[in-house]
Amino acid sequence: MITRNTINVLGIPVDKITMEEAVNRVGFFLGKFNITKDKNKDSKDKNNKDENNKDNQVKTVYTPNSEIMMAAQRDEELKNILCSGNMLVPDGAGVVLAAKILGYSLPERVAGFDLVENILDKFKDSGLRIFLLGAKPGVAEKAAINIISKYKGIEISGYHHGYFSDEEVETIIHNINESRTDLLLVALGAPKQEKWIHRYKEQLKVKVCIGVGGTLDVFAGVASRAPKFFQNHGLEWLYRLYKEPHRFWRMLDIPKFLFLSLRTRFMRALRSKN
Q: Where are the domains of the chain?
């Protein structure tokens, strides 16, 4: 079993984890291999892996950025869902900075798109079966074509756009379950994707669900990542605002989130003196 190392960021447990460790943990959830620091415990590793493969519970992975973290302060349902996740990676420089403000440290930012890319690359020769759910009509199909072109061993078990009604959900879940999917990527946007995963995870016969936001748009080529300069300097949000100015009001959650982190640190310091 995995022992999580998390930090409390405004009541939400964010995993203190590197990209490599996050990919390996997803691999463990998928039953592809076991995580161990002792290479001499081969028999124990095998037993742990077998035990993990018998666990039929869907593992949920969420990738909260500053906007999602701030939304969770206003939405108790979303906050509880994030707290119930099996892994939460800090997707955004704002989450890493907030952790630092609160007196903690996160080893690095683990962006959702980068996480998916690394998972595909790591397990491309393992027969990993992936279902793509979300984005506009036609986008998931383009993403599927590009993924199997780049990652030859990955199998796309199916795809469906994100513009479906509640009446269609039963059929979609049936198709996912019939497809023998290992990994379900849900790109419905936050917080819809997190709530959808949580609501239907008991009905899904997959090993892992990840909420991936706009990842399918990037794989499909209908959207692009920020240039490396912006990514490396924690300014991807600024590039996104430049490309999508209508997001301005949503982006205000970033300074609000950091201010709330500062306030929490200040109030904690005051209480410790009393």
A: 6-267
